[in-house]
Amino acid sequence: METPPDSALQPVEPQLVEPVAAPVAAPVIVATPPPPPPQMNTTTMNVIVQPQASGPGLLVRAVWFVFIGWWLSAIATVLAYALCITIIGLPFGFALFNRLPAVLTLRPRSETYLTEVHNGVTFMRGGTVPQLDIGPRIVWFLLVGWWLGAIYVTVAWFLCVIIITLPIGLYLYNRIGAVMTLLRY
After folding, report:
1. Looking at residue 48, what DSSP letter applies?
2. Are 80 and 96 a contacting pair, CB within 8 Å?
3. Is residue 18 one of the residues assigned to a domain?
4. Domain count, the chain
5. pLDDT string in tens for the chain (185-residue length)
6. Is residue 133 in some structural domain?
7. Please, which residues bridge with residue 121 across strands?
8. Is the dihedral of CA 162, 164, 170, 173 positive or negative?
9. Residue 7 lies in a domain
10. Alpha carbon distance 183, 152 (integer Å)
11. CB within 8 Å of 125: residues ≥ 6 apart
12. Contacts of 17 (CB under 8 A, 6+ apart)
């Protein structure tokens, strides 16, 4: 490498340069956990809604019960139970069990609505409450439900035939699914 001549090297006077900005420290990244979801004030309850003018009047229902309902409900009970013994007829048997109060007294079935309150707003939806898994329900029906259901249905029918205990018998008829298959209402 060649060295430059001495004339090319001249002393340079130092100059003062003011800094433009103060040095900036590198940003520090801190991982913060995400904010928790907002707390919702939630309440769940079952509501039974009975329509105002549904089904025939009391006089028609009383005449039906005295002349037709008591014997037709006995036949329907035996038929529904016979259908429940066969696996294929099980859904039809329970459909008939669900209609026994109407067969007995022409009483319309009550509907259940699920209501939820979220932050002061009420939401209603029709349908059923969440059910247990099918496995435990099948085991219950095979081991306990079929014979306990027969006793339960017989007691419910006798309570319905005795006029003074009719409301208790109707209540029992409405809960046959819970006894036979652990159905939730």
Report:
1. E
2. yes
3. no
4. 1
5. 555 555 555 655 656 555 555 555 555 565 566 666 666 555 555 555 555 556 788 899 889 988 999 899 999 989 988 898 887 888 888 888 878 888 988 877 666 677 778 787 777 777 667 788 888 988 898 899 989 988 998 999 999 888 899 889 888 988 888 898 888 77
6. yes
7. 118
8. negative
9. no
10. 15
11. 113, 114
12. none
Q: 3-state DSSP call for residue 3?
A: coil
Please choose, from the candidates 91, 62, 92, the residue with its C-alpha nearest in 3D space to the C-alpha of residue 166: 62
Full domain range(s) for residue 116: 42-181
C-alpha distance from residue 170 to each of 19, 104, 120, 138, 161 (Å): 93, 9, 36, 25, 10
Structure tokens at 117: 């309150």
Contacts of 107 by beta carbon, 8 Å cutoff, 6+ apart: 55, 61, 101, 170
Bridge partners of residue 116, in order along the sequence = 44, 123
**Dist. CA 92–CA 111, nearest whole Å:** 20
Whether residue 95 is contained in a domain is answered as yes
d(CA 17, CA 136): 86
Could you give the strand order of the β-sheet that contains 111-118, starting from the edge strand earlier in sequence?
A: 42-49, 111-118, 121-126
Answer whether 0.85 is exceeded by the pTM: no
